[in-house]
Amino acid sequence: MTNEHWHDLGPIEALRTTPLRQLTVAHTKIALSWNGTRFGAIHGSCNHVGGPLGSGHLDGDYVVCPWHDWKFHHVTGQGEPGYEQDRVPSFELQERDGHLWLREEATTTRHREPHERHPLERALTREPGPVRVLAISTTVMDPKSKRYSTSEALLDLALQHAGSAHGAQTRMLKLRDLSFRHCEGYYSKAAHACTWPCSITQKDPTDEMAQVYENLVFWADVVLVGTPIRWGAASSLYFKMAERLNTVQNQITLRDRVLLSDKVGGLVITGGQDNVQAVAGQMLTFFGELGLHFPPFPFVAHSRGWTAEDMEHNIEQVRTDEGLHGEAKELVDRCLLLAARLRASATKA
């Protein structure tokens, strides 16, 4: 053995104190492991999206990627049972004079086994057809004790107008009817760990946030988002959805890819307390960051105000206020007009 292509990793006893660590050897990332009986060295970049394998953890004989839980044998680099062909390079180790040495040239090569693409990974295409209006209701409600929702009622009215006055196709998504997990902070691990589709959706086929992604990214031309005001802010369901939409914004950050291209947004905000401007400001900023365009006067709002204590009249006012109903319809008119202009511009381009 010569030192030309071998590298001294340090004293064996010191290296045994940590089950897994990420090293850089000759500009190569190495995941060095000690499972209690044997050292292993594999390439430190995961096959999935390059997660740092050495920053993960050991599960028996397998290194688990900290980003999305892909597993590779800590000695051979092979994927877990059923995915053995999904392999990262492995490196030869030798013990000499109480030190551990690593051979610079990999013993095996990397092999990425083709994985079935998620349906949401398809190309962004807009199929021909009438203009499409999506409403997203973020009202929380017990399905066993349904009640009247002022924001959802105005969304319903807006959709009816879009269909009857403009011949639009319409859909309503009620977040309370969807079972989806909270954001688990993949972006906090690393920007590239937050993928499209969302890492949670990729790993969990039961995660119904996929319905929001499908309708928002691929189907809708106009998106109306409705929320009640809760303690001066949008609903908790709105924020649960917003956190999961980080995957859409991150595509702009990482790949300069706008998933919500040439789409128009409008807001319906109702609540007993007057904090409409702050709620609208957050929502406009957030969806603007995702790529939505907004017409002049981009939201409709209703509030009883800070001093109102007669909330028992709130629902009846929304039910019967023809002016408010008209404003909801006019919001749709403005959104559809802007959507038509954007589509015309896209066609000319």
Summarize, please.
31% of the residues lie in helices and 21% in strands. It is built from ten helices and 14 strands. The longest helix has 27 residues, at 322-348.
What are the defining features of this structure?
349 residues, alpha/beta, Rieske Iron-sulfur Protein, Rossmann fold, five-stranded parallel beta sheet, three-stranded antiparallel beta sheet, 10 helices
Topology of helices and strands:
Blueprint: E1 6-11, H1 12-15, E2 20-25, E3 28-34, E4 39-43, E5 57-59, E6 62-64, E7 71-73, E8 93-96, E9 99-103, E10 132-137, H2 150-166, E11 169-174, H3 186-189, H4 199-203, H5 209-219, E12 222-228, H6 236-244, H7 246-255, E13 264-271, H8 276-290, E14 299-303, H9 314-320, H10 322-348
Parallel strand pairs: 10-11, 10-12, 12-13, 13-14
Antiparallel strand pairs: 1-9, 2-3, 3-4, 5-6, 6-7, 8-9
